[in-house]
Amino acid sequence: SLVTPHDALRRARDHHRGLAAFNVVQLEHAEAYATAAEATGRTVVLQISQNAVRYHGALAPLARAVVEVAQASTAPLVLHLDHADDRALVREALSLGFTSVMFDASALPYDENVASTAEVAAEAHALGVAVEAELGEVGGKDGVHAPGVRTDPAEATEFVAATGVDSLAVAVGSSHAMTERTADLDLERIAALRAALTVPLVLHGSSGVPDSTLTAAVRAGMTKINIATHLNHALTDAVRAYLADHPGVVDPRKYLGAGREAVTDEVMRLLTVIDAV
Ligand code: G3H
Ligand code: ZN
């Protein structure tokens, strides 16, 4: 079923457990996540990023398909718009039935970030939709590795109070789009942010974080764990291996099917990693 994230976020935060959020680029991603959620009985967040929308040229076709996947599933699934800085896209997501949106105004000066995020939060909350924002830019979206950036707990507390967001993405040492799992997280900062804030904390760029550090981060207080690149790695490795073994294949269902299965398996494994508390 398609659900809002409020209960799952609250429960996960209270019990120091992770709520997994995985990115959808192709329909096969959503199918893999739903299969893993059904097999484990876990709530999973399916997220479509603004970048994925730019790739497809539109939000609605993929989003409508993912809404159908979620509604047909026996598992509770959240549909989240990831990394949107385009207010029109946020509105479109709200009209398509997304149950959660991330409005990312972190590139703006602080005051403007607060003002625009508060407006988006009010629009979303009127529809019962949850809002995630970001403070302390998580580097790497353009390949820039910025592991040194940290979110300040006092500023974060003020930001959440001023905007009314439901969860906050924080910079604690991770970087986006890492293909090697070598990131080191600032567990002390995570604990300080959790103690200072009442809303759940979101870890972006989790692909670069080793399993043991992900578990430690959840224990220390991270709640929503965003993973994209790592699963594309699994998918692409499986597709590459399938094509190498079957050079004559032309049916995409064969190799995408192999990729989808690899993603399902890796998601099942990751769910245990972030819930190993
Ligand atoms: O918002 C999505 C995540 O932060 C994914 O980052 O591709 O480095 O796992 P990642
Ligand atoms: Zn991210």
Write a concise keyword list for the protein shown above:
277 residues, alpha/beta, TIM Barrel, eight-stranded parallel barrel, binds glyceraldehyde-3-phosphate, binds zinc ion, zinc, metal-binding, zinc ion binding, Fructose-bisphosphate aldolase
Summed up:
The chain is an alpha/beta fold and 277 residues long.
Give the CATH superfamily.
Answer: Aldolase class I
Given as residue ranges, the uncertain stretches (5+ residues, pLDDT < 50) are none
CATH topology: TIM Barrel
Rounded mean pLDDT score: 94
Report strand order across the widest sheet: 1-2-3-4-5-6-7-8
Q: Which CATH C-level class is it?
A: Alpha Beta
Q: How much is the radius of gyration in Å?
A: 18 Å
Written account of the structure:
By secondary structure, the chain is α/β, with parallel strands linked by helices. The protein has a single domain, classed as TIM Barrel, CATH 3.20.20.70. It is 50% helix and 15% strand. The protein contains 11 helices and 8 strands. It has helices spanning 6-14, 27-40, 50-56, 60-72, 87-96, 110-125, 153-163, 187-196, 211-220, 229-245, 252-273; strands spanning 19-23, 44-49, 77-84, 100-103, 130-135, 167-170, 201-203, 222-227. An 8-stranded parallel β-barrel has the order 1-2-3-4-5-6-7-8, surrounded by 10 helices. Helix 7 links the parallel strand 5 (130-135) and strand 6. Helix 2 packs across helix 11. The longest helix is centred in the C-terminal third of the chain and has 22 residues, at 252-273. It is globular and about 60 Å long. The structure holds glyceraldehyde-3-phosphate and zinc ion (ZN). Glyceraldehyde-3-phosphate is lined by residues 23, 82-83, 176-178, 204-208, 226-230.
